[in-house]
Amino acid sequence: PNDETNEKIVIDTWHGFPLKNMFYTDPHYFNKNSIAPFWKQIDYSLSYSDLYSKIVNKSIKVDPENFVITGSPRNDFLFNENISRALLLKLLGKEDNGQKFIFFMPTFRKADVQNTYNSSNLFGFKDFNIDSLESFLEENNYELIVKLHPIYKKQFNDVIFNSSRISMYPEYEANKEFVDLYEVLSATDILITDYSSVYFDYLLLDKPIIFATPDLKE
Asked: Which end of the chain, N or C, is less surrounded by CB atoms within 10 Å?
């Protein structure tokens, strides 16, 4: 490391196969110039496939030769079902009552980055009814875990989390225990998302996926 002739090699693992336009391909991205210095530091980018490399390269505009097809290393965590459930229950501080888990994992939007606002509408649909959701979860022994994008700024009303069946993903506890999200993802039974790249990875589990996309037109 002290030898000046040894240059560091920077490898980017990214975090999923993009489902929506981002950075240079997103006409609404607020500061495209801000990403160029970051990507200039990268020597290699791990890739899912040739298709992934082409799509991502349009978004970040780097040397196409930088992509190395290895698959996503974090997906290995999806196949630890023997410990995944116990780990999730520990993070949530809950007992195993045979409950099934639903993960709601939305990505961010321009409005959510630029503005913060309080909402009691969990999925954004006009006819959303929290009481109906609670009844469904109770009757079917489901628990809903909400996992927001790291730069998702919308604040949900506390009334949503008054139910013992609905909780926010314990980000602090997971970080404290050095637990990656994908280490507990296989303990879930259903994924609800919108445009998040977690969709592609979750397909490996062969479990149901629901797309909640009230702003699909936008």
From this structure: N
Length of the chain in terms of residues written: 218
Give the pairing of strands 155-156 and 67-69: unpaired
Contacts (Cβ under 8 Å, ≥6 apart) of 191: 102, 103, 105, 198, 199, 202, 207, 208, 209, 210
Record the tokens describing residue 26, joined without a space: 């997103």
Number of H helices, E strands in the chain: 8, 10
Segment 2-59, tens digit of pLDDT? 555 568 898 888 777 766 667 666 766 667 677 777 777 888 888 888 888 888 887 7
> Which of these, 84, 114, 107, 105, lies nearest to 96 by C-alpha position?
84
Of 141, 148, 142, 131, the residue nearest 102 (C-alpha):
142
pTM for the model: 0.78
Question: Considering only CA atoms, which of 191, 207, 218, 212 is closest in space to residue 28?
Answer: 218
pLDDT, tens only, 172-200: 899 999 999 999 999 999 999 988 889 88
